[in-house]
Amino acid sequence: MATGNRAVVFHGTEDMRVDTVDYPKLEMPNGQKAPHGVILKIVATNICGSDLHIYRGSFPVPEGMLMGHEMTGQVVEVGPDVEFLSEGDLVSVPFNVACGRCRNCRARHTEVCETTNPDASCAAYGFNLGNWDGGQAEYMFVPYADFQLLRFPDKDQAMEKIRDLALLSDILPTAFHGLMEAGAKPGSTVYIAGAGPVGRCGAAAARLLGASCIIVGDYDQKRLDLVKRNGCETIDLSQDVPLTDQIEAILGEPMVDSAVDYVGSEAHGIGSDADKLMPQAAINQVMDATRAGGATGVIGVYGPDPLAPTQEGKEGTFPLDFGKVWIKSPRISAGQAPIMHYNRELMMAILWDRMPYLSDMLNTKVISLDEAPDAYVKFNEGSDEKYIIDPHGMIKH
Amino acid sequence: MATGNRAVVFHGTEDMRVDTVDYPKLEMPNGQKAPHGVILKIVATNICGSDLHIYRGSFPVPEGMLMGHEMTGQVVEVGPDVEFLSEGDLVSVPFNVACGRCRNCRARHTEVCETTNPDASCAAYGFNLGNWDGGQAEYMFVPYADFQLLRFPDKDQAMEKIRDLALLSDILPTAFHGLMEAGAKPGSTVYIAGAGPVGRCGAAAARLLGASCIIVGDYDQKRLDLVKRNGCETIDLSQDVPLTDQIEAILGEPMVDSAVDYVGSEAHGIGSDADKLMPQAAINQVMDATRAGGATGVIGVYGPDPLAPTQEGKEGTFPLDFGKVWIKSPRISAGQAPIMHYNRELMMAILWDRMPYLSDMLNTKVISLDEAPDAYVKFNEGSDEKYIIDPHGMIKH
Amino acid sequence: MATGNRAVVFHGTEDMRVDTVDYPKLEMPNGQKAPHGVILKIVATNICGSDLHIYRGSFPVPEGMLMGHEMTGQVVEVGPDVEFLSEGDLVSVPFNVACGRCRNCRARHTEVCETTNPDASCAAYGFNLGNWDGGQAEYMFVPYADFQLLRFPDKDQAMEKIRDLALLSDILPTAFHGLMEAGAKPGSTVYIAGAGPVGRCGAAAARLLGASCIIVGDYDQKRLDLVKRNGCETIDLSQDVPLTDQIEAILGEPMVDSAVDYVGSEAHGIGSDADKLMPQAAINQVMDATRAGGATGVIGVYGPDPLAPTQEGKEGTFPLDFGKVWIKSPRISAGQAPIMHYNRELMMAILWDRMPYLSDMLNTKVISLDEAPDAYVKFNEGSDEKYIIDPHGMIKH
Amino acid sequence: MATGNRAVVFHGTEDMRVDTVDYPKLEMPNGQKAPHGVILKIVATNICGSDLHIYRGSFPVPEGMLMGHEMTGQVVEVGPDVEFLSEGDLVSVPFNVACGRCRNCRARHTEVCETTNPDASCAAYGFNLGNWDGGQAEYMFVPYADFQLLRFPDKDQAMEKIRDLALLSDILPTAFHGLMEAGAKPGSTVYIAGAGPVGRCGAAAARLLGASCIIVGDYDQKRLDLVKRNGCETIDLSQDVPLTDQIEAILGEPMVDSAVDYVGSEAHGIGSDADKLMPQAAINQVMDATRAGGATGVIGVYGPDPLAPTQEGKEGTFPLDFGKVWIKSPRISAGQAPIMHYNRELMMAILWDRMPYLSDMLNTKVISLDEAPDAYVKFNEGSDEKYIIDPHGMIKH
Predict the structure, then answer these.
(1) Tens of pLDDT along D350-385?
(2) Tell me, what CATH number does C79's domain have?
């Protein structure tokens, strides 16, 4: 058994390093025993756009924090109150830490578990949300394992599709949740703000669920090309044309049934404002792009942000065009996705080959743990790749 | 048959008068024939809080416009394509004008009918939303009558309960819609922002649907007393105590399952800000008061408002605490209520005596058409009465 | 600490006795440790209509089985993996045994937990469904306590309302579930087949949720009187009049929006068939009574029944009028209720006094453990009382 | 303008002929004027499996009735109360006749319109359900046209895809409805009973909505091959193996999330019973194949059938295994599909090329009106083709 644990550690803004830390224990962040927990040997652990919030300093975390919240791993140790998992099981870890015992977890709202983060209404690994160690590492501890973990039915089959299955920990269900909150269904017209990895998962999920016209808006042509060659329409937001005009040119109508913001408060404006940080830009765009009677999802993260350009933004207040859209009967849903709501079904869709376009849209790249710090730099510069760290060299190339 | 029609007419800000205008025809605002329409003799026609927006000038309408959108009436003339209504039928008019033929109406979104207002996504009588004459009058024209009108099954029974049934045209279904959008169900805890007539209908509707703890916030003690003596808790917003602290004092928890804004952009602050017009205050309060995993309804009207204190407000942009609530997974629904979604069932609840507290909570007062201009003045000054105009003296006193 | 445990034990058809058995341990039926479990001191434990299936022999169980599945109790011992409950907590036990860890429990379908009964898709205390000891006893073991148990927020307040709160373990949420499955909502018209305790809870729940016309059908006038004096309409099924005619006489229409079968396969016919056991009678009646576009709930138990009058009935096959109702677009939902879906909200409704009619409708009678065998006899003879056993004399009379 | 109208006419069991009848008028079946109606020139009109019920005599209709309920056509005449359709528009006709004005239509339950068939709760063209002339003809009358008809946005584009769009009138939305009622969603496992045209549409719709494992059961290898080569699994029901065993061999589990009966009461048994007419076989199979917590849709038609083998079957009573499935918490939905609920979105999916497999799965064959009687014979013999009649020779071959 391993005694140490190599992990990606936050050392300060734009300073990620691979350190050797202690091997994890079946213990809660406060030191209490966790008989319900397991130790995982990590098979795949991705770098996420929200890791960049930490990297850039817009989401402050303590120095020394272990990064990572998108993990797939193999069970190597089970606590005495784990009944339905065994050593060797290959599992996906939902990024929300959830107890399965509180009112919200019982109601499937695992994204706002009431117990796993005493300071707020939600918890996650590798954030400052409950002091849970992240999993960009060789090993990690996961509590409430019977409740939380999604076991793949066949390990060999799963390893064949691991690049796709690795997305089940966060961004594929997260993207899917945005579409569900925006009311997307077979035949819907969809606008997707942002062609980063989550937005591209949104495009893939929209295809899976049978959306008709899927339009993705971004500034980066390489990212847009990934979705364009896989059955989606694209809008170049650096063009100086109103969004609804661009939608109308594609769809014949200026607004869609379902629009989702996959960007959040690090958004920029359209056209001549494309270089300007405008924290409210993306959400106002998706509200604008949603037809009367449609719905809007907000997956992009909003919060008090020390790097925001205004005092209001630092406090989490944004100037929203709510009065302009009120007459359209807006329905707006936001927040973290309850991964467990969706990951099993999305796993089934992957295992039965219903998303053949997923890998190409995501443009996943498998890297070693040591390559992770560089990957943060490249991802922050706008790479069109989705990085999957393979700490033990278990993924076929 | 009558030849003229006495009606409440807008002559300018704070200037409503009763004029004699032409008797209505089976004609659309653009002059086309309306074989699907009927003429109603008005039995009850209420003054609504949103009529005050017009009265005060925050919702501009043309001089000479006929006021009123909360009508109950008797069919006196039917067009050649009306099959299921007959002369003498007593009916409730949903305030939304809806064709029953467009995509949104087919999908029960009559609040955003695509055809009855060529300028916007919704239409209403007695507003500048499609040029439909209002019904604070002796007679009115209603198009698409088979689709739109709710017939009371027994005229005599209905006249006995007419003060309650008169609320079906707008404020009772509107208030109920707010609760539905906020996810309220039996046992829910509910916060209601505003004890005006719609907020009081919200309190009554929350009782009907079996909510547990129903808390109403307002500044006006007389209005609060109406709900307090009918099974609700109250919060005096002029006290300098944070809203969540006041909720916690009542409920034992600082936030509720479902919170509804029945105020809109004419809101004021809390405590020392109670005298200050703060257009974003009510919506921020209800988002603040909603628990993680709960939902928020916004029935209060937001829109570009020429009387708003800021340029942003004039354009319909509001500084919302969206970042502060994003972590709670907010679900926010806003806009006009699709009255037809609810009015039939609420009628049944009234007819079977399931809302015995309704009249007392609303404190309805029946007045003549000539008393209407004065009632606008009193309502604007904060009266705790709900005015029902009885143009033909048909309602028992 | 107690060493023995007095409990109601099944000794054979129509033979219930109070025996002294072993004090419960934190152990699963198969003898494994249950660190997630607790021991409860029982405060209230009701006799249920489905206990009569065992009593009569239509649901076979092993001799020596401990009876009871409707328990309210006080925590007296907690396992090492119980985090959110403490000694002294007063809790309601959902009658479904549910692990909180399987696919169905994660999806809120605790009524079909996949792990707590290896022989079937559901488990319950005091049945032959997973070998769980029942709780008509002084003490009992409950597994997965953090997940399963509903804690009352204030013990003294709860003891004041214990007769109502005792119904949260099964029949009130069960009855409510039937209405939800039948699509009941504010203003709905409702038909309730059966005025036994669950049917009467259905009537009470229909009132809570704001149903308009609530019609209850039964043969027993005493039972019907309990609902009639609390705001419901009644139908005497021993009259020789078709059900839809009787509904029409009350409602003005022959069918209701929502109909629920609270009877099951021990049903009798209507009128001249009132004395005849007709296992399919109740479900055919509720399908008949549901309007096109409405929905039907089947809470009454159907299953292979050794006492059924036909071979088909013994095997669980029933002659249903499916072809007669297909044209009405029937929606039929059946099965056990997932208690945890509803018990928290119904507790809140009780605690905030929203069901003042509940006690009178149910006609609850508190008895000692020693009186339980007699109560089985009386209940089987059609008593209009709902028996609550108080094993420790803790309930005020 | 045409003066006569050539149409497929029912002359008796197994006797369909093409006759010349009167050109249609803007008139209701009872002779009243229909200002809301249009006359269509038929472009495509399919033969449906339910037409075979009439052909065989299991659904009795009057001699001389015009057949057909799956029409696509061009508007050639509009009534004076038609506002949103013009001559030349190409439209799909939902097979349900629906007024858009009654309670059920207002609630989107157009499949149980309360006014268009005075004898029952639903109406359809070309059946004995309201006396509406069918549309296997050159021309037809459609009432309530603004409400009912789905206009294709671009006529040329639509004519390119007319073989797929012709399915929007009935079988594609009908099949989709079955899946919705069975709770199917992305990732669901699905069992489809029957590989006739509707079952094959069900398979196609399951692919569209992202189902994972889609299993189709039938006896006819040619029909099964059509779905097998388009991404579905198949079960040969003539094999003597229990259905759940066959499902388990494919899926690894014996039951699916969603099972839909696309067969109805003309079903046969499994294996050695494959040659035996067993009216209850299909519905019992789909209930058996549905997992606990799943749901079952019943699209196949059940009703009183004069050809049924038993007296009970003639009256519409079927021996169902309800007791065997009650413990699985069954949810069963049946009846005609409300086409308007789905046709617009499915049209969008077709227009945006999201169902490239549809034509091949359906194996559509375009025929002339004169070939229709022969096509009835072949279809009745189990052809694997779906016949589209092209009365004016407008469809490209």
Answers:
(1) 999 999 999 999 999 999 999 999 999 999 999 999
(2) 3.90.180.10
Q: Is residue B357 part of a domain?
A: no
Selection from B26, B40, B32, B100 nearest residue B70 by Cα? B40
Residues with Cβ < 8 Å from B352, sequence gap 6 or more? Answer: C212, C213
The distance between the two most distant Cα atoms of chain A, rounded to a whole number of Å, is: 62
Contact D106 B36 (CB under 8 A): no
According to DSSP, residue D81 is labeled T
- Give the whole-angstrom CA distance, residue A347 versus residue A109: 20
Instruction: State whether D119 and D79 are in the same domain.
Output: yes
- Indicate whether C329 and C366 sit together in one domain: no
The total number of structural domains that make up chain B = 2
Query: Is pTM, for the whole model, over 0.95?
Result: yes
CB neighbours of B15 closer than 8 A, spacing ≥ 6?
none
- List pLDDT tens digits, range A138-187: 999 999 999 999 999 999 999 999 999 999 999 999 999 999 999 999 99
With beta carbons under 8 A apart, name residues in chain A contacting D212: 345, 348-349, 351-352, 354
In-domain check, residue D397:
no
Phi then psi dihedrals of residue B132, to 5 deg: -90, 130
Cα distance between residue A380 and residue A387, in whole Å:
12
CATH number at residue A180: 3.40.50.720
In terms of domains, do B18 and B38 share one? yes
What digits encode the pLDDT tens for the residues A116-136? 998 888 899 999 899 999 999
Rounded Cα gap, residues D313 and D299, in angstroms: 18
For A259-309, write each residue's pLDDT tens digit.
999 999 999 999 999 999 999 999 999 999 999 999 999 999 999 999 888
B14 with B152, same domain: the answer is yes
CB contact under 8 A, C81 and A84: no
Distance CA D256, CA D215 (A): 9
Structure tokens at C18: 């109070």
Phi, psi of C320 (to 5 degrees): -105, 145
Q: What is the pLDDT of residues B349-388, one digit of tens each?
A: 999 999 999 999 999 999 999 999 999 999 999 999 999 9
Q: Is residue D395 part of a domain?
A: no
- Nearest to D125, CA basis, from D42, D3, D201: D42
CA D346 → CA D172, D231, D340, D342, distances in Å? 8, 19, 10, 6
Is residue A389's pLDDT more than 80? yes
Instruction: Assess whether C23 and C120 both reside in one domain.
Output: yes
CA of A176: which chain D residue's CA is closest? D186
Taking one residue from A and the other from C, the number of pairs with CB-CB distance under 8 angstroms is: 49
Examine the domain organization and report whether A37 and A64 are in the same domain.
yes
| φ, ψ at D133 (rounded to 5°) | -60, 140
Cross-chain residue pair C147–A108, CB shorter than 8 Å: no
CA distances from residue B365 to B168, B176, B197, B389, D360 in whole angstroms, order as listed: 16, 22, 12, 8, 68
Q: Write out the residues of chain C at the interface with chain A, using a CB-CB cutoff of 8 A.
A: 33, 35-36, 80-81, 83-84, 99-103, 106-108, 115, 146-147, 340, 344
Give the whole-angstrom CA distance, residue C116 versus residue C114.
6
B142 domain-assigned: yes
Q: For chain D, list residues whose CB is within 8 angstroms of any CB belonging to chain C.
A: 103-104, 107, 109, 111-112, 114, 120-122, 181, 265, 283, 292-293, 298, 301-305, 312-313, 315-336
Query: Are both A163 and A246 inside the same structural domain?
Result: no
Domain that holds residue B269: 171-334
Q: Are residues C164 and C177 in the same domain?
A: no
Q: With CB atoms and an 8 Å threshold, state whether C84 touches A102.
A: yes
Query: Which residues of chain A have a Cβ shorter than 8 Å from any chain D Cβ?
Result: 153, 176, 185-189, 205, 207-213, 252, 342, 344-349, 351-352, 354
